[in-house]
Amino acid sequence: MRIRVLLYVLGAVVASVGAAMLSAAAVAVGYREWGDALGILSAGVVTMGVGVAAWRLLGGKGELTTAEGFGTVALSWIAISAFGALPYLFTGAIPNVTNAFFETAAGFTTTGSSIVPDPGMLGHGILLWRALTQWLGGMGIIVLSIAILPLLGVGGVELARAESPGPRPDRLTPRFQETAKRLWLLYAVITLVEIFLLAFGEMTIFESVAHSLTTMSTGGFGTDAASLAGFSSYTQWVVIAFMTIAGVSFALHFRALRDPREYGRNVEFRLYGAILLGATILFLFGTWGDSIALAIRDATFTAVSLVTTTGFATADFGLWATGLQVAVVGLMFVGGMAGSTGGSVKVYRHGVLYASSRTDLRTLIHPRGVFVTRFGGKTVPDPVVKSVQSFFLLYMFLFMTGTLLFSIIESSVGAGFDLVTSASAVASALGNIGPGLSEVGPTSNYAAVPAAGKWLLSFLMIAGRLEIFPVLLLFTRELWRR
Fold first, then answer.
1. Are 176 and 169 in contact (CB under 8 A)?
2. Are 125 and 31 in contact (CB under 8 A)?
3. Are 228 and 313 in contact (CB under 8 A)?
4. End-to-end distance of the chain based on CA atoms, in angstroms?
5. 349 pLDDT exceeds 70?
6. pLDDT at residue 195, as a whole number
7. Each residue of 359-372: pLDDT tens digit?
8. How many CB atoms neighbour CB 329 within 10 A?
9. Which candidate, 219, 215, 178, places its Cα nearest to that of 193?
10. What is the pTM of this model?
11. Confidence of residue 163 (pLDDT cuts 50, 70, 90)
12. Rounded CA gap, 382 and 395, in Å?
């Protein structure tokens, strides 16, 4: 790892986060929240100052290697989570360092876990900053960087490989820089469409902006303690539609602009739709009540929110039957399509795992046969199969280890959390979902989690958002050798 190149990239990314804080400060000024405006502005100035110093004074240009690309992405996410906590600290909205870092990590990783009992008590500037952290983290601030850093003399291909939310980055053009620009443009346009549609309902302009930013990023931060339960059925159906859109590969969206039949041809999209439909039907039968319309809406909303890892809620699934709660936890391990803003394992990996297991079974029956793994009629290369299997193994290892450590932490301080709370909190953090079950359910928050537990969950959020490998590489000796 070349430190000067690392500082060059980190500085540029941190400086861009500081610049984003200025928009939140401007909103605070617009609402005459002078104390918040000064605090957010101060945080932005400090963040930009440190970023520019690292970028222009200490950093040095150079093409990133594969290892440096992975390491830079992991360190960037840690850095922006640290500096992104400054607006909370400087305004006093969240005066505790651990809580501020947790809230920021939940934002940039689009997890949506929160220690704030009632977001409605926060100022408009801070609420916008919470939403912005998720929107920037959704498509990925590193993806934005691959459109900028090549202009500064730093290659972005390895950054894209490390940050891409799926097994591999999907190029729309021969140049990654142009691909990043097109994806960001599409991301912004769809966000604007949702803002308009939400504003057409009962939401204010500010609420429309905040919820659109956190819907398209599959983040789940809201402006009300009841999430979206207090809004009309129109608003909830609009959010359902855009959560579904956000869970689809943005590269597929882009290709479908020219030919909508691309959706039907994509096997991962069909599997994604089948999972959403199946989960909705399961929840519908389990929650059937007096109001059919309400049952359909709550079942659909919950299924889409869980599969896309958005984390919004209209119903307290912590009160559902035990079998349905098991299904809730199971859906936390699904995720949206590769190339979407969703978290967790991803539909593509589940498809490859199923296809490779069938290949293994056929090999056992016909030991002398030669079989290849196919998904959607296309051959999946052996390196991709091994990568998917390794990822899933590491994912489950982190889930089990995280649950064990979280249980030890809470028992050592007498927090009184049960196994359901511990397991669902870890699954939610690793899958970037937000709410869990029991003490961290949809109507609760993470304020009661011990400090050590919050740092553990923050680590798992970042690891899950970056697809595990970049974070784990930080702990290898080979990365730091010259």
1. yes
2. yes
3. yes
4. 6
5. yes
6. 97
7. 989 888 888 877 88
8. 17
9. 215
10. 0.91
11. very low
12. 20
Q: What's the 3-state SS for the chain?
A: CCHHHHHHHHHHHHHHHHHHHHHHHHHHHHCCCHHHHHHHHHHHHHHHHHHHHHHHHHCCCCCCCHHHHHHHHHHHHHHHHHHCCHHHHHHCCCCCHHHHHHHHHHHHCCCCCCCCCCHHHCCHHHHHHHHHHHHHHHHCHHHHHHHHHHHHCCCCHHHHHHHCCCCCCCCCCCCHHHHHHHHHHHHHHHHHHHHHHHHCCCCCHHHHHHHHHHHHCCCCCCCCCCCCCCCCHHHHHHHHHHHHHHCCCHHHHHHHHHCCHHHHHCHHHHHHHHHHHHHHHHHHHHCCCCCHHHHHHHHHHHHHHHHCCCCCCCCCHHHCCHHHHHHHHHHCCCCCCCCCCCCCCCHHHHHHHHHHHHHHHHHHHCCCCCCCCEECCEECCHHHHHHHHHHHHHHHHHHHHHHHHHHHHHHHHCCCCCHHHHHHHHHHHHCCCCCCCHHHCCCCCCCCCCHHHHHHHHHHHHHHHCCCHHHHHCCCHHHHCC
Q: How far apart are CA 124 and CA 84, in angstroms?
A: 16
What are residue 378's DSSP bridge partners? Answer: 375
Residue (of 75, 138, 77) closest to 105 by Cα position? 77
Q: Which two tokens stand for residue 274?
A: 């089948």
Of the candidates 419, 409, 394, the residue with the CA atom closest to the CA atom of residue 454: 409
Whether the per-residue pLDDT at 455 is higher than 70: the answer is yes
Mean pLDDT within 239-258: 93
Of 98, 108, 121, which Cα lies nearest the Cα of 20? 108
CB 465 within 8 A of CB 343: yes
pLDDT in tens, 302-326: 999 999 999 999 988 888 888 899 9
Percentage of the chain surpassing pLDDT 70? 89
Average pLDDT of the chain is 87
Cα torsion 342, 344, 350, 353: sign: positive
Nearest to 437 by CA among 320, 344, 335: 320
Q: What is the largest CA-CA distance in the chain?
A: 75
Side-chain half-sphere exposure of 166, counting CA atoms within 13 A? 25
Distance of CA 241 to the CA centre of its chain: 18
Rounded Cα gap, residues 146 and 114, in angstroms: 30
- Taking a C-beta distance cutoff of 8 angstroms, is the pair 286, 223 a contact? no
Q: Which residue has the tokens 């970028």?
A: 55
* pLDDT value for 164: 52
Query: How far is it, in rounded angstroms, from Cα 249 to Cα 257?
Result: 13
Place of tokens 């500082």: 7
pLDDT tens by residue, 120-140: 899 999 999 999 999 999 887
